[in-house]
Write a structure and sequence with these properties.
This protein has 464 residues and is an alpha+beta fold. Helices cover 34% and strands 21% of the residues. The chain is built from 14 helices and 19 strands. Strand 13 and strand 14 form a beta hairpin.
């Protein structure tokens, strides 16, 4: 899809909301239609067989939901294919419909020749703030008065009901966090063969009156990619750490650091023991969609020390036995078992210290926090004086360690999860919700920091 970055929720969002767009007649010869239909059926059969035999969820006898969609999804996709696969775009959309219907962030599909420029948008993108839907971006050739106006309805239907209807009936999405991430993508025209294209929206204009706008489509451009990606929660900040109101603000936008970030990350890990006497630490996780646990777990161990974590016994997940099942390249299953505190030794600098005093901690999260970021939040919340603020995280799947498998057609490849978590499974497939929710503008750094200060004052965490 568009880029490998979009294998996460961003790409998923772009696909999901294609179903609000219209089937438009494409005049083509029957031989062309048959070509795409035959290609779809062949790739569909291959995907079904691959997931059944070579994926971790396919081999998990207890995953009834996966097995149900494995068969049901094929039948639904075939029923659409009979009459509506008359172009390459229709072929792609129906394969997307099947693959993304599994609702697993580690199971995805990517098409080699797909670009943003193949699609259209309305000259603006939506964003969700609290319970409202606003026009969060307006193209230069569009009326700028539209910016930040509240959208009330699409094609005469109340917007929240419209989004919910599309999401639940056409994509089986019911999670509010997922919907919020997808809102900026909902009015991109991917020429889906499934749902009608919207014709009008209703806004509250500058006079506080309802105004209906007729929709006009224009080509999507590469410059729109970062705009769409960042609209819901603002741009991804840079990795850094600095004093803040007597405490320390540590920004960790990834647990998969590049070479430059690795040096900075190690500086942070080495310094954590020096921050224990501070009144508070803020771990800013905005934009962090995961990475490698060898960078996540040492934060806890260097800040709190292994002795203290061990003293918590069954109250902390690091004291549990860890177990997972992995499918090898030769298609054999192996089960790996290990002990976090005894066997993982990467990037540790002060974890042997006897720690007697701990700082209070804020975890600033947004809806992009998934995978290893989600694990960090879970692990930290099991320690004393840790509070999550900002917005709800994404959820962590039971499966991961995906690998790419090329489709028979050569048009794309699927991302197949090969590892199943077996223990521990604390909060698996569920998001973490903040104690204090930020309802403001994620693009306004000053507004966000003033909001954080207000909570510090409320909790009396600021230094005297």
């Amino acid at each position: 899809m568009i880029s490998l970055y979009l294998k996460t929720y961003t790409k998923r969002a772009l696909i999901a909301f294609c179903y609000i767009l219209a089937l438009r007649p494409i005049h083509t010869h029957a031989t062309t239609a048959n070509k795409w239909e035959n290609m779809l059926l062949k790739d569909l059969e291959f995907i079904e067989e691959t997931l059944k035999l070579q994926s971790a969820p396919g081999r998990n006898k207890e995953d009834i939901a996966f097995k149900r969609w494995l068969q049901e999804g094929v039948e639904k996709t075939k029923s659409y294919a009979t009459k509506q696969v008359n172009s390459e775009k229709a072929y792609r959309e129906l394969l997307n419909y099947y693959v993304l219907g599994f609702q697993n962030e580690h199971l995805d599909i990517y098409f080699f020749d797909e670009t943003l420029q193949q699609y259209h948008f309305l000259g603006f993108f939506l964003e969700q703030r609290g319970e409202h839907y606003l026009i969060g971006y307006v193209e230069e050739n569009m009326p700028q008065r539209m910016l930040y106006k509240q959208v009330i309805a699409i094609d005469g239907k109340e917007i929240k009901a419209y989004i919910r209807d599309i999401a639940t009936h056409n994509f089986a999405i019911g999670d509010e966090i997922e919907l919020k991430r997808w809102v900026p993508y909902m009015l991109i025209d991917r020429e889906s063969p499934l749902i009608k294209r919207p014709r009008s929206i209703t806004i509250i204009n500058e006079k506080k009156e309802l105004e209906q706008l007729t929709l006009k489509w224009q080509p999507l451009q590469e410059k729109h990619h970062p705009i769409i990606r960042n609209l819901s929660f603002g741009p991804k900040p840079k990795m850094q750490y600095s004093p803040f109101c007597g405490g320390m603000w540590i920004t960790i936008p990834t647990f998969n650091p590049n070479e430059e970030e690795k040096t900075l990350f190690e500086e942070i890990l080495k310094s954590l023991q020096n921050y224990r006497d501070m009144p508070f630490i803020i771990f800013d996780l905005r934009g962090n969609s995961g990475g490698n646990a060898v960078w996540q777990r040492p934060i806890l161990r260097n800040l709190y020390g292994d002795s203290f974590i061990k003293s918590l016994g069954g109250k902390h997940i690091y004291n549990a036995p860890w177990r997972q099942k992995q499918i090898l390249e030769d298609n054999r299953d192996i089960i790996r078992e290990w002990d976090i505190l005894e066997e993982e030794r990467e990037n540790l600098f002060s974890n042997e210290d006897i720690v007697e005093k701990f700082p209070k901690v804020f975890l600033l999260t947004d809806g992009r926090c998934g995978s290893t970021c989600w694990m960090f939040v879970r692990d930290m919340l099991q320690l004393p004086n840790v509070i999550q603020i900002g917005d709800s995280t994404a959820s962590q799947s039971l499966y991961s360690n995906s690998r790419w498998v090329t489709l028979p057609s050569g048009k794309g490849k699927i991302y197949v999860p090969t590892m199943q978590r077996m223990h521990p499974l604390d909060n698996i497939d569920k998001p973490f919700h903040p104690t204090y929710t930020f309802q403001g503008d994620w693009h306004n750094e000053e507004e966000l920091k003033q909001w954080v200060i207000s909570i510090l004052e409320k909790l009396n965490w600021l230094a005297p």
